[in-house]
Design a protein that fits this description.
The complex is a heterodimer of chains A (126) and B (493).
Chain A: H1 2-20, H2 25-46, H3 70-101
Helix pairs in contact in A: 1-2, 2-3
Chain B: H1 4-26, H2 31-58, E1 64-66, E2 77-79, H3 84-105, H4 108-112, H5 115-131, H6 135-153, H7 159-190, H8 195-204, H9 209-226, H10 234-238, H11 244-269, H12 279-302, H13 307-327, H14 331-362, H15 373-376, H16 378-392, H17 398-412, H18 416-442, H19 455-473, H20 475-489
Antiparallel strand pairs in B: 1-2
Helix pairs in contact in B: 1-2, 1-5, 2-3, 2-5, 3-5, 3-11, 3-14, 3-19, 5-6, 5-11, 6-7, 6-11, 7-8, 7-9, 8-11, 9-11, 11-13, 11-14, 12-13, 12-18, 13-14, 13-17, 13-18, 14-16, 14-17, 14-19, 14-20, 16-18, 16-19, 17-18, 17-19, 19-20
Classes of the chains: A mainly alpha (126), B mainly alpha (493).
């Protein structure tokens, strides 16, 4: 079971890295989002599949019975929220780039590469 | 357990910026009120952080608070352990200087766009990262700082900013994911997220594939964050699109925050200084990364004429020196890295302030178009000379001591080649920075009209230049704090 989980996680992360390397910004965005999913699977695995005793139990008791590690689940929930927020942020940036330049090809989104007089008009009176 | 006063003092550097950010967000339709909120919150954080550092220095019992009343090691805790609390002071100083500089640099349009709220939120996240004891919490603060930084980077919504932000966001998200996987693996191995507990558990266990992979993932992720070679190219490709104040704060804080986390992970968890599993295998690699970063980035700086790009390359090159000190794998090396970090934060922010004022005076970011400032603004030329000379490593400024310590420790640790590379990079830095100053200030002006630089900018630069001079004249004071930090990091406080 653990091996299956680990291989699935590795497979998802492999696909994600392949997509991140794409020149298409939307593919890169989807790849990053997929990478977060694979990471969550690995985090889940870090808490072990099967019964794990939580660190804090009722006074006097020795064990809680069948239970899962709660910390790993808390980590995944937090990571999902953060991953979602960052994906949305990057999505907005890609959308703005597409609106201003009409392209999602990373080679053509190069406004930050230019320096010199063309870029000089910007921020004197923000 | 600590008393209430300590708990409050410990959380103030995080609470105040976030309260200020909320207030500034409500007041953003009134730029003057937002400006005052930013200035007041920054000033208050500076006072609170100085009080916290004083408290730590006076009483060796380190204040610690664990949220939710959990026993230590189970809940998320904040502690004022050095170097975290010293970095909070430097962060607050740069934030305060930036708030003053912003009076003349950030206009009502950007303030209505939420500049003050974003800046305070980023500062709060930085302070949280410096104070937390929890590995996952550290990751969360990193992401918060990233979100605020992306907002600041795109505040004018220009295509160049969007482009720079996409590069920055993609790299930072990739880095954060690697860090998260590494954190998860450490949790899987040790069963705890408390940084010091995890380090103690790992120190007692033999090196395994898991510890090596976790160390490599964390190293890779944090190298991306701090811009170390071969992951240095995103930084000069994005920083220059931000408004000057924002670029200065990024240069002073963001990469150094990545390096602080790297220091924490490498020294406390993987025990680089103790030859513990994980750390021992990585130490030879670190020296190569440091040497590559120093040489590549100084060479990159020499090839540019755009002031912001020159400085952005120097930002990364400076992280290379810190990495060199860490790569020595000795406690004195860690001390030198912490000293270098404090020096470099102040100087880098100050240099960007100076570049912004030169741009203001000469209406161009291009060095070849600048010149003659020493006649028009002698006070500015003098103030700007302080960070320039300090970055070049000229005595009596802080950079001289920082470089001297790195090279001295490399000789002590029998890694003279790394000290030699640092010297060579230092020589090239002198070439680059002296050209910078003389081109901007000494050379004859090509334009007859030159605008005056705003007083607020000069005040901000004076503040940071004064800090540089103080460190330069009394290095033993910062050195002793750095020594104490290194001892605490290695768990022998």
């Amino acid at each position: 079971m653990t091996i299956l989980y680990a291989l699935t996680g590795a497979g998802i992360i492999g696909c994600a890295i392949f997509m991140i390397l794409s020149r298409n910004l939307v593919r890169m965005l989807l790849g990053l989002s997929l990478l977060a999913t694979g990471t969550n699977l690995l985090l889940f695995l870090a808490g072990r599949i099967g019964s794990e005793q939580p660190p804090i139990i009722r006074d006097g008791a020795k064990a809680l019975g069948v239970s899962a590690d709660p910390v790993a689940q808390a980590l995944i929930l937090t990571a999902i929220v953060i991953g979602f927020a960052l994906t949305v942020m990057l999505g907005v940036l890609v959308l703005r780039a597409w609106r201003s330049g009409g392209t999602v090809d990373a080679r053509e989104v190069d406004a930050a590469e230019m320096v010199g007089p063309a870029q000089e008009r910007d921020d004197l009176h923000g | 357990m600590t008393c209430m006063g300590d708990a409050l003092l410990l959380t103030l550097p995080v609470l105040v910026p976030f309260l200020g950010a909320a207030l500034a967000l409500l007041l953003r339709k009134h730029p003057a009120a937002a400006l005052m909120t930013g200035l007041a919150a920054s000033g208050f954080v500076l006072l609170a952080s100085v009080a916290l550092l004083t408290r730590v220095m006076v009483d060796p019992r380190v204040p610690l608070t664990v949220f939710g009343g959990w026993p230590q090691g189970f809940g998320i805790g904040f502690s004022a352990a050095l170097p975290g609390s010293a970095l909070v002071v430097v962060t607050a100083l740069i934030l305060f200087a930036a708030a003053i500089y912003a009076i003349g640099d950030i206009g009502p349009r950007r303030r209505r766009g939420g500049y003050d709220a974003l800046m305070l939120a980023m500062a709060g996240a930085m302070n949280g990262a410096c104070l937390t004891n929890d590995l996952f919490n550290l990751y969360v603060w990193f992401e918060l700082a990233l979100l605020a930084a992306l907002g600041l980077l795109t505040i004018d919504r220009r295509p160049a900013q969007i482009d720079g932000a996409i590069r920055y966001a993609a790299f930072a998200m990739l880095a954060a994911t690697f860090i998260l996987i590494g954190v998860g693996m450490i949790y899987g191995m040790t069963g705890t997220l408390d940084i010091r507990t995890a380090g103690a558990v790992l120190a007692d266990s033999p090196a395994s594939v898991a510890s090596a992979v976790a160390a490599a993932l964390l190293l890779g992720g944090l190298m991306l964050k701090s811009g170390l070679a071969p992951f240095h190219l995103w930084l000069p490709a994005s920083y220059h699109t931000a408004p000057t104040t924002v670029a200065a704060v990024f240069a002073g804080l963001l990469t150094k925050m990545g390096f602080y986390a790297l220091l924490l992970v490498m020294v406390v968890i993987f025990g680089v200084g103790r030859g513990a599993p994980g750390g021992a295998q990585l130490t030879p690699l670190l020296g190569g990364i440091a040497a590559l970063t120093m040489l590549l980035c100084v060479a990159g700086a020499l090839g540019q004429t755009d002031m912001r790009r020159i400085l952005a390359y120097h930002v990364v090159a400076q992280v290379g020196y810190m990495m060199a000190a860490l790569a020595l794998g000795t406690r004195d090396g860690v001390t030198a890295a912490i000293f270098y970090m404090v020096h470099s934060m102040i100087v880098q922010a100050n240099l960007f302030f100076g570049a912004g004022l030169i741009r203001r005076a000469s209406a161009s970011w291009d060095l070849t178009r600048a010149g003659g400032i020493v006649r028009r603004e002698p006070l500015f030329a003098l103030l700007f000379a302080v960070p320039v000379l300090s970055l070049s490593g000229i005595p009596p400024f802080s950079g001289f001591w920082a470089k001297l310590f790195v090279i001295r420790e490399s000789l002590d640790a029998d890694m003279a080649w790394l000290g030699g590379v640092a010297l060579l990079a230092g020589l090239l830095t002198i070439v680059s920075m002296s050209t910078f100053w003389s081109d901007a200030c000494w050379k004859d002006a090509r334009r007859t009209s030159m605008r005056a630089v705003p007083k607020s900018g000069l005040v901000a630069m004076a503040l940071l230049s004064a800090a540089t001079v103080v460190i330069g004249l009394m290095p033993q004071w910062l050195w002793s704090i750095a020594q104490l930090s290194a001892r605490l990091l290695e768990g022998q406080g």
